[in-house]
Amino acid sequence: xxxxxxxxxxxxxxxxxxxxxxxxxxxxxxxxxxxxxxxxxxxxxxxxxxxxxxxxxxxxxxxxxxxxxxxxxxxxxxxxxxxxxxxxxxxxxxxxxxxxxxxxxxxxxxxxxxxxxxxxxxxxxxxxxxxxxxxxxxxxxxxxxxxxxxxxxxxxxxxxxxxxxxxxxxxxxxxxxxxxxxxxxxxxxxxxxxxxxxxxxxxxxxxxxxxxxxxxxxxxxxxxxxxxxxxxxxxxxxxxxxxxxxxxxxxxxxxxxxxxxxxxxxxxxxxxxxxxxxxxxxxxxxxxxxxxxxxxxxxxxxxxxxxxxxxxxxxxxxxxxxxxxxxxxxxxxxxxxxxxxxxxxxxxxxxxxxxxxxxxxxxxxxxxxxxxxxxxxxxxxxxxxxxxxxxxxxxxxxxxxxxxxxxxxxxxxxxxxxxxxxxxxxxxxxxxxxxxxxxxxxxxxxxxxxxxxxxxxxxxxxxxxxxxxxxxxxxxxxxxxxxxxxxxxxxxxxxxxxxxxxxxxxxxxxxxxxxxxxxxxxxxxxxxxxxxxxxxxxxxxxxxxxxxxxxxxxxxxxxxxxxxxxxxxxxxxxxxxxxxxxxxxxxxxxxxxxxxxxxxxxxxxxxxxxxxxxxxxxxxxxxxxxxxxxxxxxxxxxxxxxxxxxxxxxxxxxxxxxxxxxxxxxxxxxxxxxxxxxxxxxxxxxxxxxxxxxxxxxxxxxxxxxxxxxxxxxxxxxxxxxxxxxxxxxxxxxxxxxxxxxxxxxxxxxxxxxxxxxxxxxxxxxxxxxxxxxxxxxxxxxxxxxxxxxxxxxxxxxxxxxxxxxxxxxxxxxxxxxxxxxxxxxxxxxxxxxxxxxxxxxxxxxxxxxxxxxxxxxxxxxxxxxxxxxxxxxxxxxxxxxxxxxxxxxxxxxxxxxxxxxxxxxxxxxxxxxxxxxxxxxxxxxxxxxx
Length: 931
What we know:
The chain is of the alpha/beta class. It is 39% helix and 13% strand. Strands 3-9-10-8-7-4-6-5 form an eight-stranded mixed beta sheet, with helices on both faces. A seven-stranded mixed beta sheet has the order 15-12-16-17-19-18-24, sandwiched between helices. A hairpin with a 6-residue loop joins strand 13 and strand 14 (619-620). Helix 3 (55-75) packs parallel to helix 4 (124-135).
């Protein structure tokens, strides 16, 4: 029964009256009572008993037994034998008989309540034994918070039908032992052959390897064709060797330092961060692809990346069928409880834009962080309590009981395939050494590590079990270990003999048509123009609303304006320029995916890519209705997460280069909530792991008096990460140039992340528009010269980027200034130095060049440009900006206006009136270097 709380406090008269009602009409009582009385009658008839005066009292005890059954189901996990090296904490109330209104004198009494367990009428002693074996042995099950009766019944039936006790064949047990022997022997071998080298051993949790091996086998039987795995560094080498089938020779060569090449352009990474992919064949001959995602030391960062990779493969490779691929995330106990990214990613599990059909979470529960005891690492009872957020079942398993773990993970795989929900396996184990092999754990946990020192490894424990039950000869186990160590020694000898294992990067799978970029690729952009007829046809399609649907009046007016752009003026604003970029790519068969907070409408109400009908919740998406032959257009409002969602979108783009994958920040200022993804993946993945990525980041940026948190997308932080042509950073000033920048992502046979600082006020600026010809001719312009002045008259050249251009332009035109040229640097990185020098050289009479920016002097592009330009023709270039500051912007509108006015005045060296001079100096004396 799903909830037996209504039985509490029942009395004999009440139960008797219910029973009488049931006899007259079974439907007159609740379903739970119907089942109870059915069982009671069945048991009474089977035993030949008759109803007598004592029946009501017996009814009450039957109820108490039902309460006990429910108690074990709900709280049995608190009283399991799941900790291999520590006594469990005590929890009250216990599951003693007395706490359910029963006594030892009842142990020989036969109760019908056991019908609930599927075993028919049974003695109380047998019922208790059944419950203890099922719920309080090596597996503790947490699942009663699940709100779907069908799921509860399924879980209980699965566990209770076998009493949560595995029953593997001799061949299956030998397979488990083989993988366990590989795991233990591999770690022992590394520890003796590479003494003192960091490897982040799996020792204490070696049962993970047979568990992963089994879930691959089980998953394949249930239709899984691919697993995407994410994990931290602990145990990674073991997984690479014994699950991913990376050769022992290559791993040993990495320990020998032979994976490095002085000729390689890549910096590489430590061996326990590397990713790998492979194809394996199961015992039944099924082929399964395995991908282990590369990861940094920033624990749990990989979670979003794995989910994004999985979703990308679901969309592209498996036609939307999430039953053919599954993500596996391997956590540590401290990190799964302590890192907020875990919550951000788990909250994606049921969201349309991000769900992957359920994730299998494995927790290597060492019961310790680096040096932090588990009691100091969390408030919750379990490190897995976050599973309750998504109503995901948790199985707590003794890491020394390898059969229990294999059984539990197989059950988890079945659950995932049936209900498409997350499921957690909490492997209670230990860490035999410190955080790394050279660390001394006895400094902080002396008693625990005394116990660990004396504790046998899980392989030896399992061998003893198999020998005792007659499934294995002790000599066979020793021979297995001997043969495997001989194999490892042979591979080590081979590794020592080779000079280098370095290989040039070769892309495969979905990336097989891609290559590594060269510096020459960035000297100019490829053509990204679109035929006029094609562009206008798409513009008309995406600006026309269906006549049979009723939209909000303001939406109709907005689309009337867009229709005029498409049919009459042929001059397009930013919103249309953006959607034309997507529309033309979709028409060319290129999938487009855009996600982030409020992206469907757009933070600044400019995009309106998803329209909700006025009188219903029905939605209409113009970009999804261009033609029957177009590629899919996916657009999703994300939950309020930067870190998790940016990681997800990075993973989506990582798995496949054939979609324009875009993440937009609500305000560019907020991207720093995902700074780890930027630093560890977007900026450095190619250098570390030789993995390209075409992700686009749209970061609204611009100083408009909205304060420190709504002004700056931190251009300087991206610029300081730029090197080795690792990404592209743009700050476009026209819709057409943005159009070409987006299309350029697909017009080259390599991929680089693209960071675009997008406008806010310019979205509706009358001058921030582009004529049709700018879309139908040409390509992305890294630098745009000033066509409003004659080169011979120019004495000063202002280089700038982004919104400040329009303020400089307005002043130039209003004041009719003819001797100052304004040059736009649309691409900040790779910095187009040759193009900048070429433009500057046209102004033969120019006396000086200046960089103008809105950002403080220590922010924006200037710090990077100052370093890059010092050895060029611009070696004496100066900057006009706000003075260096610890905050991005002022919160006072008046001060902002004064600062902006000062920048403009300084840029043109205009004579400032005495009053203006006084105001400017008073306003900016603390934030400017005033001559």
